[in-house]
Amino acid sequence: MNKTDLSERDICTKFITPAVKRAGWDVMSQIREEVSFTKGRIIVRGKLVTRGKSKRADYILYYKPNIPIALIEAKDNAQAVGAGMQQGLEYGETLDIPFVFASNGDAFLFHDRTGQSADTEAELALDAFPTPADLWAKYLAWKGLQPSDEEIVLQDYYEGDKEPRYYQQIAINKTIESTAKGQDRNLLVMATGTGKTYAAFQIIWRLWKAGRNKLILFLADRNVLIDQAMVNDFRPFGATMAKLSTSSKTIERDDGSASEIPAAIEKKQRRIDTSYEVYLALYQAITGPEDRAKLFRELSPDFFDLIVIDECHRGSAAEDSAWREILEYFSGATQTGLTATPKETEYVSNIHYFG
What we know:
This protein has helices at about 10-20, 85-95, 130-145, 150-155, 165-180, 195-210, 225-230, 285, 320-330, 350-355, and strands at about 30-40, 40-45, 50, 55-65, 65-75, 100-105, 105-110, 120-125, 185-190, 215-220, 240-245, 250, 260, 265, 270, 280, 305-310, 335-340.
């Protein structure tokens, strides 16, 4: 067998994958091959519409599912060891993956994007590929995470009928890491239509399951955002979740089935049932211009551990807004804002508020 006659795929199968497995990476849970992460550009020529080539990494290595830490770009053996490095670095930047490898089956060229290594690039023998523990230790140092933060950072995602897109994964992981390090004000900027509610759910789920935040408030300014979140993305919270409302109702889920939305406010006495753990609220329903309308004051200022504010650009940036009043009352809670359009003017700043 002449190695230079082998295809790129043969090089992967016969040399790269075995080398990575020998280093202790699990082929079922940690190694993914030919991972497409963007669809090709839509190209319009007159009446003809075509889609360009999608971006696809040859390998992505995960310390745990949805926590990628390395990628490998492969080339056939007729090319140099580092021939795939430039493409790998481009993908690493897009996917926020710090450790990039290139290989032609003879060796690995390793590029450390974190700047921690003595040499930014180094050639490694096939049998010298780093172990998961080696790269994870570098990852923790790069992120400034302590060993005590690992339980939170490594908390599993909720595994449902969909998995996060790469940009959702980046947003979720960065927010979890920031919270683990004690940052109590976070602003998540994601374009309209990129799944902010799903990202919010995964952030809340992981912090809740890790025991970091047990009492949680999700705030929005439109009923449809609350109701759809409860019966779709937030549904796994089940009986631990309720809406800060005086009336229950049944609405249709995305799959056509019906789901009931429980209410957490006793209608006659307007008292909040504090037996739930995850609360969702329309901010207009729990505050108002008069003190008797400020229902949130029924709870102690330290009641919530985490507050997530959807579409926080709509009103929370103004100093006198109802949003700000609620957030300042529960100022001891970790607060994460979600927005597609962060507000930043001479007079108003939600970037300043969230730090």
